[in-house]
């Protein structure tokens, strides 16, 4: 391994918790010892299950039709039996195949669902992807919900599921933490209620009380700072409220905690969501994976007519939202998500999205893949976001698909009514500090970038326009049909093309403005209707 790679690895590991390192070493050693002993799990364990009482949850996306599976916008049809280890479309696709969320699409019948479950059980001994703890966790919840809704009490299925929960208990994801361990806890709670299992319950309770306190920030945001993952975690909490509230096991001991977290998380996501229902695609976020904010609001009200959330003041999540009559602006002026698990973070400090008249104008470039390839690396890079690149470097050292070595930190922060200013040190290795100020006025947005450096550097600001926006450059202005952008301090403006990825494996061509400057750049985005009005008044 080259010295540069060694230093990068050290600068990645140094942020991890001792607990993560300990469990990683534990699993490595344990697995080697088990290989020597030819250890295998039992795939069926005698159980006693009790189908649950649950209100209808949310329908899943249509992913199985005419025996053809579609996940992440990639289709696959299996000729004879399903290949549960199929990796032809990548590991995340295989995970989705094993989640069994399609059991909850509207067209699913009980007979079809049982056929799929039996197919899985028949291949379980050769299943590698589906017996990892994360897919076990999601599959466990989906099987239990399906069996309970259809009032199915099948001993073979129950015994298989109970064995899978035993495997999960032996492989809880303390080496990863974050949403992975939280999903383990949610699933164990379902398993505890379904099997009336005290050991599952105590472990679920321990994980959930610890992780919900750790992972849900004071302003209600999930600490990995992905709006999409926030929606997924909130959906899971609402499902757990459904479970605990309408079943008598354990006398609702966790209900108050779950409801408190759901309310503050609803407040956060409703604050961040644009008026047209879309979320900012910050960090690892994309569409058609998580339930929408409206669906989550409706589900919460279904669980309790009085289930009200409070509007929140965005704070420690690092996001800020400015709202005017003609536009909405969401900005990122915070640190990368938790130091010890930044796998879903991008190098995007001071990134922003802007919607005008409820339509996307300047957007995050999105997320098209989780594969550790050049596309994934580029989508996480600073250049792929609406912020400033210095000397062609990333602010934060993203690498390996889900890793971050040295990362930008906010070292100064000030905010007042309709204005926020922050400084990050992501370029301190070349003795540079970057300060950005956002100011929201009634009909315009002002952005000021300052580069604190004793020497000149190549500074470039990027603006990525939604593909529906057509941009032209004229005499130093960027002109669109809904806004005009002017600059002061620029040394050059260029329009490039880029790939906008609003969903996995789906991209559209849009225009990107590349603005060069030295140490200071002032950018003013003026709503076009306002410009017309001023001309008419004159």
Task: Describe the protein's architecture and organization.
- The protein is of the alpha+beta class and 538 residues long.
- It has helices at 3-13, 18-37, 91-99, 110-122, 133-149, 155-169, 178-195, 198-215, 227-245, 255-272, 293-303, 374-380, 528-537; strands spanning 64-65, 68-71, 74-77, 319-323, 327-332, 352-356, 359-362, 388-390, 398-399, 403-404, 410-416, 419-424, 433-440, 444-452, 459-464, 472-474, 477-479, 483-503, 506-527.
- Strands 8, 11, 12, 13, 14, 15, 16, 17, 18 and 19 form a ten-stranded antiparallel β-sheet that branches.
- The model is unreliable at 530-538 (pLDDT under 50).
Biggest pleated sheet: 10 strands, antiparallel
The secondary-structure class comes to alpha+beta
Estimate the helix proportion, in percent.
25-40%
Q: What share of residues are in beta strands?
A: 15-25%
Number of helices: 13
Gap between N and C termini, in Å? 68 Å
Name the poorly predicted regions.
Answer: 530-538
Radius of gyration: 25 Å
Q: Globular, elongated, flat, extended or rod-shaped: what is the shape?
A: globular
Annotation, overall tally of beta strands: 19
Output mean pLDDT: 95
Condensed summary:
The protein is α+β, with helices and mostly antiparallel strands and 538 residues long. Helices cover 35% and strands 23% of the residues.
């Amino acid at each position: 391994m080259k010295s540069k790679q060694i230093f990068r690895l050290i600068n990645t590991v140094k942020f991890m918790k001792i607990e993560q390192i300990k469990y990683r070493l534990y699993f490595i050693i344990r697995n080697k010892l088990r290989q020597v002993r030819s250890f295998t799990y039992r795939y069926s364990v005698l159980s006693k299950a009790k189908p649950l009482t649950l209100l209808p949850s949310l329908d899943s996306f249509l992913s199985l039709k005419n025996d053809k599976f579609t996940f992440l916008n990639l289709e696959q049809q299996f000729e004879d039996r399903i290949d549960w280890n199929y990796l032809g479309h990548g590991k995340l696709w295989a995970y989705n195949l094993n989640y069994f969320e399609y059991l909850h699409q509207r067209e699913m019948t009980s007979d079809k669902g049982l056929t799929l479950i039996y197919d899985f059980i028949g291949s379980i001994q050769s299943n590698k992807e589906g017996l990892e703890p994360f897919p076990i966790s999601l599959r466990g919840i989906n099987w239990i919900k399906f069996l309970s809704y259809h009032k199915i009490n099948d001993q073979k299925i129950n015994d298989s599921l109970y064995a899978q929960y035993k495997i999960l208990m032996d492989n809880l994801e303390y080496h990863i933490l974050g949403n992975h361990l939280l999903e383990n806890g949610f699933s164990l709670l379902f398993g505890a209620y379904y099997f009336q299992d005290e050991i599952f319950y105590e472990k679920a309770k321990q994980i959930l009380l610890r992780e919900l306190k750790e992972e849900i920030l004071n302003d209600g945001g999930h600490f990995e700072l992905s709006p999409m993952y926030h929606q997924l975690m909130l959906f899971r909490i609402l499902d757990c409220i459904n479970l605990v509230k309408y079943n008598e096991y354990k006398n609702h001991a966790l209900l108050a905690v779950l409801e408190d977290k759901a309310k503050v998380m609803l407040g956060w996501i409703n604050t961040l969501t644009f008026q047209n229902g879309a979320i900012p695609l910050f960090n690892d976020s994309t569409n058609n994976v998580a339930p929408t904010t409206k669906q989550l609001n409706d589900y919460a009200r279904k669980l309790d007519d009085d289930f009200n959330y409070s509007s929140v003041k965005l704070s420690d999540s690092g996001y800020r939202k400015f709202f005017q009559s003609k536009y909405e602006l969401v900005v990122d002026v915070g640190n990368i998500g938790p130091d010890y698990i930044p796998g879903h973070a991008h190098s995007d400090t001071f990134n922003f999205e802007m919607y005008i008249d409820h339509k996307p104008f300047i957007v995050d470039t999105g997320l098209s893949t989780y594969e550790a390839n050049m596309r994934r690396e580029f989508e996480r890079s600073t250049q792929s976001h609406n912020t400033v690149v210095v000397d062609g470097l990333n602010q934060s050292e993203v690498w390996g698909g889900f890793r971050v070595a040295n990362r930008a930190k906010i070292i100064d922060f000030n905010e007042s009514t309709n204005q926020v200013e922050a400084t990050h040190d992501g370029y301190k290795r070349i003795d540079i500090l970057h300060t950005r100020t956002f100011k929201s006025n009634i009909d315009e947005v002002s952005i000021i970038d300052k580069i604190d450096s004793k020497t000149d550097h190549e500074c470039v600001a990027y603006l990525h326009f939604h593909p529906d926006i057509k941009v032209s450059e004229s005499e130093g202005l960027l002109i669109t049909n809904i806004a005009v952008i002017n600059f002061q301090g620029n040394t050059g403006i260029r329009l490039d093309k880029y790939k906008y990825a609003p969903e996995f494996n789906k991209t559209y061509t849009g225009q990107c403005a590349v603005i060069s400057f030295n140490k200071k750049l002032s950018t003013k985005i003026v709503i076009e209707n306002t410009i017309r009005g001023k001309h008419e008044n004159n």
